[in-house]
Every structure is written in structure tokens, then in C-alpha cells.
Amino acid sequence: MHDSPELDQLRDWDAGAPPLDDETRHRVRVRLFAAMNDPAPVVRRRRPVVRIALTATVAAAVAATVLVTVRDDDGGTATPPSSSSPALRNVSARTVLYGAAAFSREHETAVAPRDDQFIYTKEIIKETERETGAKKTYVDETWRSVDGTKPSWIMEIGKGWWSVPYKKRPGDHVESVSMWPPQDWDTLKSLPTDPAKLILKLNFGGRTPHSIDEIEDQEWSQIHFSLVGLLMLVPVMPEDLRPAAYEALAMVPGVKAVPNQKDAAGRRGVAITFDGRISHRSNAETGAGDSFIFDPDTYEFLGFRDTRTSHGRTYDQFSYLDSWAVTDRAKQRPQAG
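RESULT FIELD:
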């Protein structure tokens, strides 16, 4: 088979574009995935175009330029996003969560701690009291025993305490501990990394469905609650577990994507929330309640938005993982770099 003259000309054409870096290549792949898998109907206006054959490199470079133009990483308002901005565009929850899973698989560092070590996490919680608008920031640092046999230092909302290890009785299996989400590394490693199997591994109150089709309507709310707990309360996971949890969350009926949300730094993103369990706690101003917020370009996880009530006052929270490490002792500071 002979190439056409047009293809010969295209092959010889020097695009003059630099090679794509890893971040740009990832963005292009995610956007392509979204275009192929988004079940939500998208109406696009046609406009006259000059039909020019571009190489994939040039097309990707153009797409990357558009993405950089509409992002506002510094949280500034000098250039308000247009209606075509990824942050404002309607997109399905499935697309966002599968994009988040792809980002996690590509960028998260695999970790294999020893049983005698600790997982150190530093989380930032920014809190606003609804009635007064008063703001406060907490830095929660936690050292959790990898195998759960040593005292762990736990912090929540700036308050810390020593967590006493669970005392297993003879014959106890680690999975017999009725605590969700699990915290010891062996149990986390035993969880399936297939999203459907992960859902079926959750506690159904003594009932054991054998397939997703056997799950009853009223059980999906508890499934959502369990997956959110896993993703929110276990910031460092064994390899491939977080992507599986994202994809499992995408299978929950009632999960939706809400565009034009802001993270703690003021960056615009897309929120993933749930119609059923938390609709009564939704924020009337933003249209989203307790939710995960993702970067609208890469689907990187930006943080978790939540609310809490204490002494009759309601607080809006935004939390995110600042850093993590593996240490040999509780309260041992990770080495810089």
C-alpha cells in the first residue's frame, strides 16, 4: 500500500513544537479519556474551521496552551474563567472519578512500610464558622502504627491523643476487627483493587451479595459512606487501592459532579458529592455539600470539604494532605527532602 501525497507532505512537515512533558501528556490522555467515556450528552456548537492536518504533538501543545490560559492556580481573580473553562464545564462524576484514578495510578508513590514503622501524615484543615465568618487553620500531624500493635499519635482539629493498640485474642483474624476504614497495613493490603470486588467486600450487615446487581437500593448510601470514609481517613494507601476506591465510588448511584467549586487556595475545581446521604447538609450557596474536589484539568485530588457542628455552631471545613512519610518511631520528624 502506497501513502498518499498528502501523507508524504505531512510526514515531511516540521511542526516546530517541543516534546510534551509528562504533565502535559497526562492532561491530554485524561481529556481524551473523558471525551470517550463521558456518558453525559455534550452539545457542541459547530463553527467554520480551516481544515489543516496537524500532528498529534502540535494538537497536544495547542490543547495544553488552552488549559494553562484558563487555570488560576494562585487563586486570583484577574482573569475570570469563561464558560468554556474546564472548571465550569458540566462533566459526569464517572469521568472525574476515573480521571482521578488514572492520575493516582500515574503519580502516587508506592510505599511498602515495615510492620514496626509508622505512617506520618500532615493534614491542613481550614475552618470557617458560618454565623460569624471567623476563620481558623489547624495542622493535624498523625503517626499511625503500620501493624496496629504500637501506640499511635492521632490528631483531629488540633487536638492529639495516644491511640491504644487493639489487643487481639488468640485465634482472631485481623479482618474480624469491626472497624472501618481499617488502619493496619495488612488489612488495607488485603482489600481488593478491583472496584466491583472492593464494593462487595464492604459490610452489608450480615448479607453477602455475590454481584453488584444484587445490591439493594437502600444499601448504596452505606456503600457511599464506607468509600468516602476509606478515601478521607486513610490518606496513604497500598498501591492501586486508591484508584480502585475512586472507580468504586463512580459506580454508586446518586454520585454527581458539581462544577465551579473552590479549594482552600481559591482554585476552581469540580466537586464530587452524593444526592442521597448528604443532600440535607448541602451548601445552598454552592450547590454541593460534603464533597471531594478535583482539579478540572488533571483530576488531581485537591481536598475534602465537610461540615461539623459543635456546641450549636456549624463550621465549614476544607482539608487536604500536605505531606506524608514513613518513620521508625511515633513523633519522629520526617527528614526534609
